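Problem: given the chain below (220 residues), write out its structure.
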Amino acid sequence: MERVAIGRAIVRDPKVFLMDEPLSNLDAKLEEALRTELKSLQVNLGAKFLYVTHDQVEAMTMGDRIGVLREGEIIQIGTPHEVYHSPKDTYVASFIGTPPMNIFDALIQGSRVTIVEELFEFDLEPNTIDRVKGLSGEIKVGIRSENIPIHVEKGITAKVYGVENMGMERIVTLRVGDCLFKSTVDPSLNIEVDSEVQFRFDQDRIHFFHRDSGENLFFS
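Solution.
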């Protein structure tokens, strides 16, 4: 039915295609095939597609530009790369990405960041200190799971709370005190639940958000 509807639209030679979740009722295999067909069709026709979806995979793989809405209001517009790597606020950061960005309540004092007192603290590196421009006080810190390497030297100790085998990667849930967060690692790493590992943050990939509004403090 989806192919028929698209075919009917094509013969009218429209300037813009408006699509409202056209793949929402399909099984996973057919959905993947039609995503490829639709993207190829858009390129071959050279037409504009306005595509509405709640599926971020569709948005990230098919869109040249993405608009993220919340309660009917556009929060951010950008390329998939921009929206993923430079989210405007914690809503976008936690909506885009699987798993979503890890977001922590944190305290910055000088060059020291505290998430769980005495257990989950680290010093900012010189480049990060320059980037945050003297930021201090209570904030939110965000980082993607792939930017938290584990089995590192002189890292922070965490207990492995869960392991999800995803084929090409493993998503490891770590726990420090009552704080749970996720790290995406190579599937060849031997990791067992309840074991202890050392981890760190790739500080070039840390985001800093306003404690209350959730706005990215260094959004550009």
